[in-house]
Structure prediction request, 680 residues.
Amino acid sequence: MRRFFTALLIGVLATPAIAADDIVLRGMGSFHIGGRIAEVKGKEVRMIVRQPGGPLTKLDPNGKYMVEQMYVQYFLPKNKMGKLPLLTWHGGGLTGVTYESTPDGREGWVNFFIRKGWDVYNSDAVERGRSGFASPDVWPSEPTFLPFADPFERFRIGQGEGSWSDDPAQRKVIPGSQFPVEAYNNYMRQTVPRWLSTDQAIIDAYVALVDKVCPCVLLLHSQGGSFGFKVAELRPDKVKAIVAVESATAGIVANAPKLKNTPVLMIFGDNVDQHPRWAAFKKIDTEYANAIKAGGGSVDWINLPEIGIKGNSHMMMQDKNSDQIAEVIQKWLVAKGLGE
Amino acid sequence: MRRFFTALLIGVLATPAIAADDIVLRGMGSFHIGGRIAEVKGKEVRMIVRQPGGPLTKLDPNGKYMVEQMYVQYFLPKNKMGKLPLLTWHGGGLTGVTYESTPDGREGWVNFFIRKGWDVYNSDAVERGRSGFASPDVWPSEPTFLPFADPFERFRIGQGEGSWSDDPAQRKVIPGSQFPVEAYNNYMRQTVPRWLSTDQAIIDAYVALVDKVCPCVLLLHSQGGSFGFKVAELRPDKVKAIVAVESATAGIVANAPKLKNTPVLMIFGDNVDQHPRWAAFKKIDTEYANAIKAGGGSVDWINLPEIGIKGNSHMMMQDKNSDQIAEVIQKWLVAKGLGE
Prediction:
């Protein structure tokens, strides 16, 4: 008997010993989804400078192009405990990197939720990151770019307009802020240009993703909330729950009753009512939440300071207490019977 | 004693049993590196259309921006067998997705080399994918876009110029091609716009990456070869080996002797000599390889058809026999004492 136990033990130990913080996956990979073939025709062949100081050379923009596809990366934990895939959708001017890691180098929510046993699908919205973008011949608008001051003043890191300074010592950070301000440059490295004319293409690609991998749970941030609720209205039978982190506008109020069977959690951080922009978004989200409830649905609402979690910026998944907020989300998902 | 074994066994079995094809990681995440702060000043406030059909609105482009940073994602296997980190650098008009997955949904080389025990750092060159890109006020050139016909005719999938057709049945695929032509649209979904004026910025960010995570091995593809050899010339003590897959030009011949202590493997696929563009690149690479050897270094050269591996396109890490080619690379790395 002792020999039997010894042999069995040796067999088990021959596989690498797993530490509590190892990540064990039964699969991982990526794919692109959605998009359409755009034809550019009848455009003049134009002369462009391809390299600074170089000669003008011919560029023929006519032809067929793949445009408006979306990049999705997925991680499938061995110890699957989430009942459904968890789809993480980022905010404006950002990519899936939002959820991967923090500017000060800690693990992001992708790792957190993999460790909790969720199949995680982390994507870049159309036009951003690894999704690529279309030429000016296809999209009749230009991208916009974020200067340093913008997210600092707008995402409740600094004390609103005028709080940014090139001199770190002169920046007016909100007292008690949880954002890793010492790594603000790394946050700016994560930002990407943003078009303002691509909403429909973004929604179309998200719908294609939902049709491929759902039923599922959506985890939405900021502008991702605006897209996520509209997608859920189009596929209410496939979106089984929504966690919206500071949704920057929500769905279409008249369609809100479609979400009567989709439980929703709305989360807001600190200093929201003091910031006109976020107070306005909160009001819009409240109206949408009320419309869901009036239609027979369920919305839970957490203002983090009211449960004792203070100092959170708009980028709470990158704030220093990001794991604490992820725990709040995990607890809600478990309470809804979706996780363990 | 029996109680001791029983307790130990229960403890071990409480961790999930690992299957042979599971991926066990001791860590994973991402970061951005490099880049610089660019100031835009003295530019006129201009009027832009932000949404098609919308009004002209003011855009003030002046301010400070983070530009030319690079995105890097890393996976650290539990069962580490690679002696050094493996850095995977993609080709032109593409991103790190090149190495993640194939257009027909198989696992890519990232997974392959993680399974072989390598710490893998997969990045998007400056200007591409999750690295973001700078505004026309910072970069004085415009991006170029790939129409469907271009990679098909240029990357030895089709039979050269004129082989593309919108009608799949009319496309002239190279007989015996290993490229998953049925999934060509998915390949096009992976492509991203490309600037032609950003080489120095790309090299600077790669050097910053090498300074952060090396000594290391570089796995280069196509345009990534042009960058990788130049970076290795700048950091010969940190780049301990180079695998170059169809390097589209190489380093600077006069600097090649700097690589005398860096073993190099050059790999080319099939139908190279029949395609003028690739024959030209092969000639350039040969001259560079000869210069390394003349300087006392070591270069191994594999033309895949000569070892019986036929039909490979320029995108061999996505061809149907991609794992077979990865095995060739793995074998070379092991022979150089770098892996197990």
User: Anything to note?
Assistant: Chain B has a mean pLDDT of 94. Strands of chain B lie at 23-40, 46-49, 56-59, 63-77, 86-89, 120-124, 216-221, 239-245, 264-268, 299-303. The two ends of chain B are 37 Å apart (CA to CA). Residues 69-335 of chain B form a domain with the Rossmann fold fold (CATH 3.40.50.1820).
